[in-house]
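User: Teach me something about this protein's shape.
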Amino acid sequence: MDPVLKQLQELRNTAGAELEAAAQKVRALDKMIADYQASLAKVKSATQGDLFSALPRGRAERAEYVARMMDAAEQLILAARRPMTRTELLEALTAKGFHVEGGDASKVLGTNLWRSKRFESLKGIGYWPKSAPLPAAFADAERRPSMLG
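Assistant: First, the predicted structure itself:
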């Protein structure tokens, strides 16, 4: 075979292989871009549209929202049949779609539990609704009185 023709064919084969590798890279990058755009859309939806637009703005709306959240907290505790900590309640309420605003959401939730006057705090154990009899297993738990009465 002619040496020039052979060299040209080898160059074409090399260029073809490089082109295929580049095409694979482009396809991989296109997928990464699409996945990232989808992730951004989800974050934007969760932080702007779905979540914060649903949060109450006025004082009365916030009070109603917190009251619904306290109802849900009571239901969660009673369903668990044991006192629950703020952290456990926060996770469960978040899973139900509630949002607690603040730098320390667990502490904010605890404040709301106290202010509602519907729960008692059992030292080192968690919160229990005042509307239900305390399970016998927790009868000896130290009850922390609320300063709010």
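Now, about its shape. The chain has two domains: 1-54, 59-144. The radius of gyration is 30 Å. If you'd like, I can walk through any region in more detail.
User: That's plenty for now, thanks!
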